[in-house]
Amino acid sequence: MEAQALQFFIASVTAAGFGIAIAAFGCGIAQGLGLRSAVEGIARNPESSGKVTVTMLIGLAMIESLCIYALVIALILIYAHPQAAAIAGLFAH
Known about the structure:
It is a single chain. By secondary structure, this protein is mainly alpha-helical. The chain has a single domain, classed as F1FO ATP Synthase. Helices cover 89% and strands 0% of the residues. The protein has helices spanning 2-44, 49-79, 84-92. α1 (2-44) runs antiparallel to α2 and α1 packs across α3.
């Protein structure tokens, strides 16, 4: 039972690590593309900088929230699973 709990914990940590890495990579790419498009739009039409900036900031906040959701799921995978007591017992010795 303890070996299975440890294997489950290792799998959970690995999945959490890969999940947050992929989410951070995707969010970084999306934020870069959004910022690039906003700067190009402002460069073409400087009068629209206020509207473009507000829209860009709202979009960046939405993209960042996706990465935060991935972080929450990763933390749930690591800390809130049914065999937490067995794993804590392994590390208490």
